[in-house]
Design goal:
By secondary structure, the chain is an alpha+beta fold. The structure holds zinc ion.
Length: 298
Amino acid sequence: MSERYSKSDIREIAEYLVEDLRECEDGTVTTTGRLARASGYDDMETFDLFDLHDALFKAARANHITLDMSEHKDKVEGLPFNLTFVVRNKKAQIKCPRCGSQNTARYIYGYPAFSEEMQKMLDEGKWVLGGCCISSVEIDGQRVETMPARKCNDCKRDFATAPILMTPKTETVEDYRDVVTAIKFSVGGFFGGYTDITIRKNDKGAVVKVQKTLAYDELPDDRQISPTKWQKIVNTLYSQLYLHEWKKSFVDPCVLDGTQWSLDISLTNKRKRSYSGSNDYPPYWNELLKIFREFAKI
Ligand SMILES: [Zn+2]
């Protein structure tokens, strides 16, 4: 008997099944084995299913999905991938980075086999057919697909494309996550003063500097973070918050002072991307604050 799936295959399948978990009703009861079979992986050996079960729980956690197996606690009942769990996915609903709607659909590419289940997902706006044209670019010898992964059912715009930066003048294609050199977030108001948090990449990872405009505020010391931590921050900005798809300015003209904020991203070759707002905020505002709250009270 030979191993049929590699570790990276298993991870990829788990990532794929997480999308099913995201799209099912909150409170759905299922098993890892059942999910795998429903997606066409009905030839998996026991040891593959063991691995898949672990990978699925890990991927679900990373996507804020809870798979509750508490009813099996302290019982001896059999193979974990055949035991039921309850899916809790309310916190996992992806928001459109433009309008904030949680009513978004996943693009299905290629020629999928038609089924009743599929029709149901299309009718409910959870899936949308993307056709069979798969476009891609090459970055550092790797093919990266350029099609959007999702469509907003409210503002009708596509989103969740790979964070690719194309510069026609120099004919270069880069991944934003590889070229970010510094992140500066500033938030505050005229009366309360401003807090600036700057995270600048260096050869040991990145250094975090906190500054405040009001002199009596106590400032934390500069803090060195690891390369893994730096990469995680950049990944969160682009892979989970879709920063490359945000609009640049958020302004509520009806309020004169109040809260002002800005987010400046420095890229290699002195390039910059700036986002700012005045009493108006991007859909992923809370998620953005979460990144910086670790370093300063904001
Ligand atoms: Zn939208």
